[in-house]
Amino acid sequence: MSAPLLLALVWLVAVNVGGLLPTKDYHWRFAYVMIALGIPLLGWVTWTQGPIVGLLFLAAGASVLRWPLIYLMRWLRGAKRSEPVE
Predict the structure, then answer these.
(1) How far apart are CA 46 and CA 64, in angstroms?
(2) Stated pTM of the model
(3) CA–CA gap between residue 66 and residue 60 (Å, rounded)
(4) How far apart are CA 44 and CA 50, in angstroms?
(5) Do 69 and 59 form a contact (C-beta atoms < 8 A)?
(6) What gap in Å lies between CA 49 and CA 72, rounded to an integer?
(7) Contact of 2 with 48, CB cutoff 8 Å
(8) pLDDT per residue as tens digits for the range 20-46
(9) 66, CA 20 to 30 Å: which among 2, 11, 32, 33?
């Protein structure tokens, strides 16, 4: 098993375990750190293992960190709909 794939699996386990721990800010700080670590890791996995494995890792990460992704999509949809007030 290659190093990027092993680190990706460790990242997935860490995100799952971190999601089980109770926090006062509903895991947002933890999610920001995991996203900051996961994006370069996703690029490394895609570069070394190919796009199919990269897409699988992206899907696994998006399923674990779904609420930041949901809020991002809501924010993007709201930004598109806003029109200048005349």
Answers:
(1) 19
(2) 0.81
(3) 10
(4) 10
(5) no
(6) 28
(7) yes
(8) 999 888 888 999 999 999 999 999 999
(9) 2
